[in-house]
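Encode chain A's predicted structure.
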Amino acid sequence: MNLMRTAMLLAFMTALFMGVGFLIGGQSGMLIAFVVAAGMNFFSYWNSDRMVLSTYGAQEVDERSAPEFYRIVRDLARNAGLPMPKVYLYDSPQPNAFATGRNPENAAVAASTGLLHALTPEEVAGVMAHELAHVQNRDTLTMTITATLAGAISMLGNFAFFFGGRRDNNNPLGMVGVLVAMIVAPLAAMLVQMAISRTREYSADRRGAEICGNPLWLASALGKIARGAAHIPNEEAEGHPATAHMFIINPLSGERMDNLFSTHPNTENRIAALHEMARYGGGGASPMTPSSGASSGFGSTGPSFTANSGRKSRSVPNTGRGGSQPPKGPWS
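Encoded structure for chain A:
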């Protein structure tokens, strides 16, 4: 059902893009819009991961540079039956994470340094399981196409007045059509993007809880991330709001009007759904369990994190709480 709904929404967005082209330039404008949309989606298919990772200055890490974080992702990927994705960290005090890539074989997951600082290892596992669920469901490709079309429609809307006003012969609806292209089309594109994103987030929450084995880990993480995102700005996201849908929690500050049309469902509803899942025994894989150290979190003196593999690692350098800080989270 979700797949059919997503396909219908994407088809509507493509038709909307072509409709804007028609309002601007008649039949020739519609044809040009179709060619441009196809070209943009083709480019995004092959380059979207590099584009977004570069936008946020993400750096790839491995088992030597970020052993604990890398191992969490590795064990979760094994639980999900997925190929090992590339793992990235980006420098931002706002706790958040996202996934990108055109398919599971070419996927990447990224977390902020703020996420590793604020969350326990169990909560980090819940977050990364959510991102791997997006990869497994191929949401990363769907959302890339959606963002590309939404951005293109908004761009055409911004230029509609200049192009439409000078080409009245090609625009059968005249100035009315131009106004529709300027105002209605970008708003409609935003609403479609919201509808697709919200559906995908609930599905990824559900599957992520199954991958990590404990819905409460993700529920606790969502609460912390939402509180952090509300008070800690992400300047890169503010400058590139079209990427907001990629994050586990909307990274845009409450001061932006974009939040009136949030690409994410209500966080409290997501948390409630996860608690309901836990109440009825939801969660498929055997959950990872923390070691018996006195502190949870990432830091040079923090404890190791025991996962399915049974291997231990010491730290994620320069990205976490030190061992002198008190434990946080329901598993401390």
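The radius of gyration is 21 Å.
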